[in-house]
User: What shape does this take?
Amino acid sequence: MSSELLQKIFRTLGDPTRVRIGLLLQREELAVQELMEVLGMAQSRVSRHLGILREAALVRDRRDGTYALYHFVGPEEPAWADAWALACRAVADDPATERDQAALARVLRAREQRAHSFFDSVGGEWDALRKVWGDELLRARAFRHLIPSGMTVADVGTGTGVLAIDLAEAGCHVIAIDSSEAMLEAAARKLEAAGVSGVELRAGTAEGLPLADGEVDAAFAHMVLQYLEAPEPAIAEMSRVVRPGGRVVLIDFVSHDRAWMQGELGVRHLGFAPEDLAAAMRAAGLEQVHVNVQPEATRGADLPETFIASGTRPEENR
Ligand SMILES: C[S@@+](CC[C@H](N)C(=O)[O-])C[C@H]1O[C@@H](n2cnc3c(N)ncnc32)[C@H](O)[C@@H]1O
Assistant: This one.
């Protein structure tokens, strides 16, 4: 060991306060303010000690908002490690070290209370406060991680592929089906522009899906049933093409009286009664059928309520 290194080790660890600080940071990452409270020392002294420890690469800091938080870095070099172990032994029986640990526990309790009391005081106001995060997109993306990757999903009546792209971005292999050539062409253009792979476009009808029995893990139809002559044949087809244990998910409007939708949006049905839809799904052999009405899930003017219906194809051999 060089004499410079030896001197540096002595200079750094020769002051018991620095060893006490090292021990505290070994137990917990702390802000300067918290170290001041534990040690009962002014900021200038604490900062000077921290500077020396940081220079010796025994502690590191990171920014957390306006705070600098310090943590201990175990010495790697054998000379430093030996010296650190020796220094720790030297202060082990020091009453100041014992006091430090008790003061640390008090400071940590106060820290926890600060976090708790914030939410205790906020309570029901939190929903208004959390709006600053504007995290709708983040939440939607986070939920995508719940979808098992590699699922094959049929997007029946894909239209221009809006939902097919969402599903592909969530890691699904999508077979996007539509009876309209114009829609499929628009979908192909959109997929190319978005640079999305993992979507296979197929021409076909909902009543005669171009899919083999049990070919997909899930079948999905978003705002399609209202355009069909009748929903039952399509629901039976969707049930046929999902594997045992697979899911059928249907999203559409609840029965309504907005006749303008026939002329302006070309719909053939003014929505569906949730109980009729649930009956059609059970008749198609689906189990665990749920039709959940979604109040305020769409934000257009004068729009009816929507529902999300789901059902599961029974496992075989039961
Ligand atoms: C309102 S768009 C919905 C598109 C897409 N699912 C969405 O939410 O953006 C309805 C789609 O269903 C398709 N469609 C209508 N009747 C169909 C049928 N019998 N078989 C397959 N697709 C059909 C239409 O071509 C259209 O693309």
Q: What stands out?
A: The chain is about 45% helix and 20% strand. The chain has a mean pLDDT of 92.
